[in-house]
Design brief:
This protein is mainly alpha-helical. The protein has three domains: about 5-90, Double Stranded RNA Binding Domain; about 100-185; about 210-370, hpI Integrase, Chain A (Orthogonal Bundle). The protein is built from 16 helices and six strands. A hairpin with a 6-residue loop joins strand 5 (about 255-260) and strand 6 (about 270). The longest helix is centred in the first third of the chain and has 24 residues, at about 60-80. The radius of gyration is 28 Å and the shape is elongated.
Length: about 375
């Protein structure tokens, strides 16, 4: 076999991955197959149904075939790392092979196979990049993920000039992968310490009070911002994110009830729209039979228009698209809607996300009790 071709095949194999790419010489070509060593010394082999020629003139064509073969072997290694559905291995063999698996590859495979949302995948990617930097791009086996490793990984973040919320976001992805492995008994004991994340001061969510919302709605829209301003107001009465407002269709609304698949969480939200939202829809129907907001432009340009509008209304708050969603949540809580139903209306998958809005109730309870201060006995 040509030396370059042989070197290409050898480069596909890592010492920590149990499945290996191998080749066997036939009459005029080489057959590619995968191989895994069993605990008792026996070997499991199976053909990949791919063949290459050994001559140097076939090198470029061989590279493509080897890449295809390596993709199949990588898939087997990922499956072994995050699945226990391998019939030809007994339980002890499974555990032994898993312990030698590369945690970096498991991390990558977990994110890729479980999530499709771009934002979530980006956070996983950033977390993984920090993990690689921490390891100096060296592989780490599963049996090395212990409490000491976790402390060292957290210590790596302590030295970085990042917001604690960002550090926690990346650590949470690490925790999620490790927790999956613990749950499926690939790691015997949970190595994550109790106090593993960083303390962060959660800022109060900015929102518009009913008085401010009425004041804003009665303020003339800035030039060329008709759809942007109406979309913002609609968001205050629906809780929709900018991305969901942008794709909202009249077909999503029937008998004053809206049903959409949220872009961020991939969860459906369905509820009856309040009167102000219905009035906005009726005003916009003359412009389109399909998209509700036909000309929103980019998120950034919309924020510029919204800030100009808020300034004209003499409201001294920093208002962006997402404040419409905050306003929806806070107004519901002020009207006495319980947090469980607010969470459902927002489409949150975790009620902890909704609890960040509870500061608005605390503010109003404080004002209510302060009103008693002037009463003398």
């Amino acid at each position: 076999m040509d030396k370059r071709t042989k070197a290409k095949i050898d480069a596909c194999n890592s010492s920590v991955n149990p499945f290996k790419l191998r080749y066997r010489k036939n009459k005029d070509f080489y057959t590619l197959f995968y191989e895994i060593n069993r605990q008792n010394g026996e070997r499991k082999r199976a053909s990949l149904n791919l063949q290459i020629k050994g001559s140097s003139g076939s090198y470029q064509k061989n590279i493509k075939i080897i890449k295809s073969a390596n993709n199949q072997v990588d898939a087997l290694n990922r499956k072994l790392a995050i699945s226990n559905n391998l019939d030809f291995l007994n339980e002890n063999e499974k555990k032994e092979q898993i312990q030698k698996a590369n945690f970096i590859k498991i991390f990558e495979a977990y994110a890729r196979e479980k999530y499709s949302n771009k934002s979530t995948l980006k956070t996983f990617h950033n977390s993984l990049q920090h993990l690689k930097l921490f390891l100096n791009n060296k592989p780490v086996q599963l049996n090395e993920i212990n409490r000491q490793f976790c402390f060292r990984f957290k210590n790596y973040f302590e030295k970085l000039e990042l917001k604690n919320s960002s550090k926690n976001s990346y650590l949470q992805k690490f925790i999620e992968v490790v927790s999956y492995l613990v749950e499926n008994k690939f790691i015997k004991e949970n190595p994550i310490p109790k106090k593993f994340t960083f303390k962060e001061n959660v800022p109060d969510r900015q929102y518009l009070t009913p008085k401010e919302l009425n004041k804003l709605a009665s303020t003339p829209f800035p030039e060329y911002s008709f759809f942007v301003c109406n979309a913002f107001l609609f968001g205050c009465f629906s809780g929709f994110r900018w991305a969901d407002l942008k794709k909202l269709k009249f077909a999503d609304i029937s008998n004053n009830e809206v049903k959409i698949l949220q872009g961020k969480t991939k969860e459906y939200v369905e509820f009856k729209l309040p009167t102000p939202a219905i009035e906005i829809l009726n005003k916009l129907r003359v412009f389109s039979n399909e998209s509700v907001f036909v000309d929103l432009g980019s998120n950034h340009r919309g924020n510029i228009k919204i800030k100009e509008w808020v300034k004209n209304a003499e409201i001294k708050k920093t208002i962006t698209w997402h404040v419409a969603r905050h306003t929806f949540a806070c107004l519901l809580l002020l009207k006495g809607v319980d947090i469980y139903h607010v969470s459902k209306l927002l489409g949150h998958t975790d009620i902890k996300s909704t609890m960040k809005y509870l500061h608005v109730l605390k503010e109003h309870k404080t004002k209510a009790t302060e009103a008693l201060s002037d009463i003398l006995f």
